[in-house]
Amino acid sequence: MLSGCASGNSTATDALVKSTTYGLVRGYAHDSVAVFKGIPYAKAKRFGKPVSPSKWDTIMDCTRYGDIAPQTGSPSPTAYNPVDTARTMSDNCLNLNIWTSMRDDSSDRPVMVWLHGGAFEYGSSHQYTVLDGTRLADVENVVVVTLNHRLGALGFLDLSAYGDEYDSSGNHGMLDIMTALWWIRDNIKAFGGDPTNITVFGEGAGGVKVLTLLAMPAAKGLFHKAIVQSGVLEGMCQEQELSRKIGVYTVEEAGVLTPDQLAEMPYEKIAAAAERAVERVNREYPRDRDNRVRLAPVYGTKVLPYPIYSDSAINAVADIPIIIGSNLTDLIYCDESIDCSIQCAEAVHNLTPTEFAARMKEKFGDRAVDVLDAFSQAYPDRNSSEVLVTDTRVRSLVLKIAHVLAGRSNAPVYVYLFSWTSPLNDGYGMSFRSAEIPFIFNNYEDAPFARAGGNEARRLSRIMSRCWATFARSGNPNNSITPFWRRINLGEGHTMVFDRDIHLETYKDLPLMRILHPDIVEGITLREEYSTLQ
């Protein structure tokens, strides 16, 4: 029996007991929401493909989170996004959590499946306390699902050089997710969800996982809409030639001869050997920081034929409506390892004019004047010093990928930018990476940085969660409480800006992107009418 699930004695007539293809599960009531945690959707041997879980005869008690994937390091609380430190790790980590309304007996609610971030190496379904699905399920009448899958060396170590039985080992983490989607398709109706209306959404590496699913032929039909939040990170998929080297070097570094022997080692030793192997490959094939070799989904395989940002991959699934976007200061991390108030305050807000000029020259060289002018035109209400920490790399990739996606078919594509700044610590946190998550889950009160925004944050939370849920329901985020959000499919350049003033605007930052990342945004072509909208 999985951690988080224990056998119990109840009756199937209990309103909180649901039937799955593998056995009965019992959850608990939180307000008017039924909650089920730690439900097993698969099982797997180390370096083996996910398979169906064993069936059970008694009612499985699913009232607490299951084990998460083995990973190195442990999160600690932060003043910005509190993390859930009550967790256990084990190989027995293929489990999911469900929140569904108890207000009626409906079985046609849209299903929203969250994929966590963590660079394919860490994270979990409940890493942040704001990932609780209660309010989103209750207020928006959707079914929320979060899940765990294998990470790091157990999820993405390519051992295919050792035989056909390991041919998919470099993508087992993604196959876990796909298996979870199969489970959801076959079982979610019992929890009030519509198996023909499933939306996958995720932030950071979770957004990369969404794009990876879009590029996996076998995942077609398992989901119907997609939301990519800051998920256009570079270097997050790996060509098989190098991934195989990582696998071979990991076995060598571990001092064993075969994957079977490697599988018998404690996870910490496997992870350490894999880390040394990755460093060896990076020394042999040096690249810039963003494109370093790493453990990540492997392309050039049956599971993932093409790089996830290539035209071939993007066009693999042409009929999926998509929301894609990022945060204004997306490369600022306010997580368990960085105090962003110190980082940002000392980096930009407290600079003297002389220091600011020097930093501009250091970062932008001869382009400094043009960059500052373009930044001021794009963000007239922002402090000029914030140009030093405003993200342009992720944003430019968002625009590029969004317009390639919009060219696939008539499936709508919507672009957003999250630029809200919390008053906490004098606003030094800015719009850091993952800052939008509490608002999406309508849990702003559970994150101190968001709660500090008071009524302004309450309104933003209500609107963003409504947009995401409305999109999950219909493929269109427009609703009665949000300004009109225009799709970009007709060669237009529109971004929904989520800030104190929530509004749709043209790509005011595109001139800035053209200065800093001309190679990325050169493919963006807009209608002639766009120029009249400036």
How would you characterize this protein structure?
The chain is an alpha/beta fold and 534 residues long. It has two domains: 1-51 and 94-320, Rossmann fold, CATH 3.40.50; 322-533, Alpha/Beta hydrolase fold, catalytic domain (Rossmann fold). It has helices at 134-140, 152-156, 172-187, 205-214, 240-254, 259-263, 267-284, 311-314, 340-349, 353-364, 368-378, 393-406, 437-440, 448-451, 454-474, 510-516, 518-521, and strands spanning 6-8, 17-20, 23-26, 28-30, 33-40, 59-61, 95-101, 109-115, 143-147, 193-203, 225-229, 238-239, 298-299, 322-327, 413-418, 494-498, 503-506. The longest helix is centred in the C-terminal third of the chain and has 21 residues, at 454-474. Mean pLDDT is 89; it is low at 1-13 and 529-534.
Which superfamily, in CATH terms, is the homologous superfamily of the largest domain? Alpha/Beta hydrolase fold, catalytic domain
Task: Count all strands and give the number.
Answer: 17
Largest sheet, in brief, is: 11 strands, mixed
Give average pLDDT, whole number.
89
CATH architecture of the largest domain: 3-Layer(aba) Sandwich
First-to-last CA distance? 60 Å
- How do the strands of the widest beta sheet line up side by side? 4-5-7-9-8-10-11-14-15-16-17
Structural class: alpha/beta
Number of helices: 17
* Helix share, percent: 25-40%
The low-confidence runs, each spanning 5 or more residues with pLDDT under 50, are 1-13, 529-534
Task: List the domain count as a whole number.
Answer: 2
- For this structure, the CATH topology of the largest domain is Rossmann fold
Tell me the Rg in angstroms: 23 Å
